[in-house]
Design a protein that fits this description.
2 domains; five-stranded antiparallel sheet
């Protein structure tokens, strides 16, 4: 028994002895690639940050200490997803209360940023089937968003145009749309419209990097103060490390590269434990529609990668996970530039570096098929 223990210790020491130098060389090569690419594209190295982790921890990095703040831009949305899942739960759905009184449909806003014409059409058809009536008037209250429009005037206009274009909708052709500053609580038949589940909304938000939907979700989960408390409790990260004013990353956000990896890894573990899967939350480059449909051209296969990009005020960023035969690798690049003419260079630099990083490994090939079930997974529930 003692000999077996000694043998195990000896093997461990030998493994560490050989592994550490190789890891150091590997890290040095990665750092040199990053620096050389930065110089090639004429980018300021003091504004370039990356960190690279495998399953066990940090492998390499540049300017990625807790003292170096980065502007995450739309990579912020990954933080928002992690925060919202914790605060709202995987079964969360936005709820919009609807009342039919006579031939008037009252819509009490429920803050659903994903409510679109297909959802309104499904409500109209439900009402028409149940009561055999043509709606003549639509009245909506505050916090009702339609086709990503927010102001009452924009919502009114968008509803009118959309319903007129939807010639098959069972409504009075001379319908009207009005805004009421107060919700409706009168008589009539009540319905409850529920959005698709949270992870489907996050996937859509990730694919198209929709700032409005991310900010609305961030506020629904509690906003900046609740977010700071969550970061402190979950990651031990104070406001000196991370601070968010928005869920989208449009402004007032800062964090670190290392914390971004931790958040992304925790998000991955959370959605996997819930039976959702990270591929149903983050975008798959060049496979999913949206902002990453042309990303990472130097990587031959991207079906094993999930990622989020972000651009804002002289910053171009990426964070993601690549699944390889050596295990998952986690990466984040925050590229900065000082001249607008260098915007495209910053993007090419970040994508080239990430490509060189991932191409060092043998990737898995997943049979991932893009899907968007947001409108199909809504619910209309009659209320007594």
């Amino acid at each position: 028994m003692l000999l077996k223990k000694i043998s195990k210790i000896t093997i461990t020491i030998i493994t560490i002895f050989f592994f550490l130098p190789l890891s150091s060389v590997h890290a040095a090569n990665i750092n040199n690639t990053f620096i050389n690419l930065g110089k090639k594209y004429g980018l300021p190295l003091n504004k370039e940050v990356f960190c690279f982790y495998n399953y066990y921890g940090r492998v390499a990095g540049y300017n990625d200490s807790n003292n170096v703040r980065v502007i995450p831009a739309s990579v912020s949305k990954l933080y928002t997803f992690d925060f919202a899942l914790n605060k709202l739960g995987k079964d969360f759905r936005y709820t919009t209360n609807v009342f039919l009184n006579g031939n008037t449909l009252y819509i009490n806003g429920g803050g659903d940023p994903h409510f679109v014409i297909e959802n309104l059409r499904s409500i109209i058809e439900k009402v028409s089937t149940d009561k055999h009536i043509l709606i003549s008037h639509f009245v909506f209250s505050p916090n009702f968003y339609f086709n990503w429009k927010t102001s009452p005037s924009d919502v009114t206009y968008s509803m009118i145009i959309s319903l007129k274009e939807d010639s098959g909708a069972p409504i009075n052709p001379n319908f009207s749309v009005h805004y009421s500053p107060t919700p409706y609580y009168g008589g009539g038949i009540k319905y409850k419209f529920q959005s698709a589940p949270l992870h489907m909304l996050m996937k859509q938000t990730s694919n198209w990097s929709n700032n409005f939907t991310a900010d609305t979700l961030f506020d629904k989960a509690g906003g900046s103060r609740a977010f700071s408390a969550y970061m402190k409790k979950m990651y031990g990260a104070s406001n000196q490390i991370v601070r968010f004013g928005t869920g989208s990353g449009l402004s007032s956000n800062y964090t670190t590269c290392g914390l971004t990896i931790r958040v992304m890894k925790h998000l991955e573990q959370t959605v996997n434990s819930l039976g959702i899967g990270i591929f149903n939350v983050m975008s798959v480059p060049r496979v999913d529609p949206g902002v990453l449909k042309d990303a990472f051209p130097i990587i031959s296969n991207t079906s094993d990668i999930v990622a989020k990009s972000g651009t804002l005020d002289y910053h171009h960023n990426y964070a993601g996970i690549a699944y390889t035969t050596a295990g998952p690798i986690y990466f984040a690049v925050f590229s900065g530039y000082t001249k607008m003419k260098d915007k495209s260079k910053s993007k090419i630099f970040a994508e080239t570096f990430i490509g060189s990083l991932i191409n060092r490994y043998t990737q898995y090939t997943f049979k991932y098929i893009p899907h968007n079930y947001v409108t199909e997974n809504t619910k209309i529930i009659p209320r007594n």
